[in-house]
């Protein structure tokens, strides 16, 4: 398969490199990633300034790679239009430094890059794993990404669905299996720490406490239980369950 790899942690991110090393064993890759850290940028795109694209060499990786002065979604757009000489079979975004579970998928640049591909009717996958101060390891997640890719290629290659893959940070022998599940609840009690800067400017630093309701059968729940989670996502945010209900009320007005 011909694959486009991207991320939101930047062209120098270890997770991207681990994913590239694993996938280029059996696939043809082009890498296009932001030139700097762009985590939590969501689905933003650059419209008021040009994008600067530079070919770079990544040690230990033979595939062509490009840094882009934009967002993850920008990377997908410019790669599809200018950097690839034929149609890509799948876009894979990651491996993200940290899970993309629950409502975090709304803010995630990693997931948004995969959604950008889906908008253009290209199959896509977002890949994430947890990282701690003591452990930064991506090889297990890369292996699972390769495994899911092989299955999807033969049995489920939908061009408008994002496969959101999260791999727990545990030894591979402790992983209990793969759970296909829905997005769970995950919110934050956000607050800001106020400081004074130069000229008495007010500076606000975001802090927050994580809230994770223990809803069973969700990605948030299963990742804690030691499962790899796989959630199909779609960019159509319509709530079809209440579409007719709302229509009956407002179409009469």
UniProtKB/TrEMBL annotation:
One of its GO terms (molecular function) is 3'-nucleotidase activity. Binds 1 divalent metal cation per subunit. Its main location: cytoplasm. Signal peptide: none annotated. It comes from the Bacteria. It is an enzyme of class 3 (hydrolase). Its cofactor is a divalent metal cation. Its EC number is 3.1.3.5. A divalent metal cation binds at residues 8-9, 39, 96. SUPFAM superfamilies: SurE-like. Keywords: Cytoplasm, Hydrolase, Metal-binding, Nucleotide-binding. Residues 4-189 form the Survival protein SurE-like phosphatase/nucleotidase domain. It catalyses: a ribonucleoside 5'-phosphate + H2O = a ribonucleoside + phosphate. InterPro entries: SurE (IPR030048), SurE-like_Pase/nucleotidase (IPR002828), SurE-like_sf (IPR036523). It is found in: Cytoplasm. Nucleotidase that shows phosphatase activity on nucleoside 5'-monophosphates. Belongs to the SurE nucleotidase family. NCBIfam families: PRK00346.1-4, PRK13933.1, surE. This is 5'-nucleotidase SurE. The lineage of its organism: Bacteria, Bacillati, Bacillota, Clostridia, Eubacteriales.
């Amino acid at each position: 398969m011909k694959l486009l790899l991207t991320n939101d942690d930047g062209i120098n991110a270890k997770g991207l490199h681990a994913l590239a090393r694993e996938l280029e064993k059996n696939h043809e890759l082009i890498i296009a990633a932001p030139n700097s850290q762009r985590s939590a940028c969501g689905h933003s795109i650059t419209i008021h300034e040009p994008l600067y694209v530079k070919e770079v060499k990544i040690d230990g990786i033979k595939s062509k790679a490009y840094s882009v002065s934009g967002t993850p979604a920008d990377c997908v757009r410019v790669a599809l239009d200018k950097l690839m000489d034929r149609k890509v079979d799948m876009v894979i975004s990651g491996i993200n430094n940290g899970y993309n579970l629950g409502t975090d998928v709304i803010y995630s640049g990693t997931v948004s890059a995969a959604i950008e591909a889906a908008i253009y009717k290209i199959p896509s996958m977002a890949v994430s794993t947890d990282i701690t101060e003591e452990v930064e390891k991506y090889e297990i997640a890369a292996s699972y990404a390769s495994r899911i890719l092989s299955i999807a290629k033969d049995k489920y290659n939908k061009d408008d669905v994002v496969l959101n893959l999260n791999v727990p940070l545990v030894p591979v022998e402790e992983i209990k299996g793969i759970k296909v599940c829905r997005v769970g609840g995950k919110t934050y009690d956000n607050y800001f720490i106020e400081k004074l800067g130069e000229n008495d400017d007010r500076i606000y630093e975001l802090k927050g406490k994580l809230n994770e309701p223990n809803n069973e059968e969700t990605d948030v729940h299963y990742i804690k239980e030691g499962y790899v989670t796989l959630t199909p996502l779609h960019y159509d945010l319509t709530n079809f369950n209440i579409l007719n209900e709302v229509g009956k009320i407002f179409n009469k007005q």
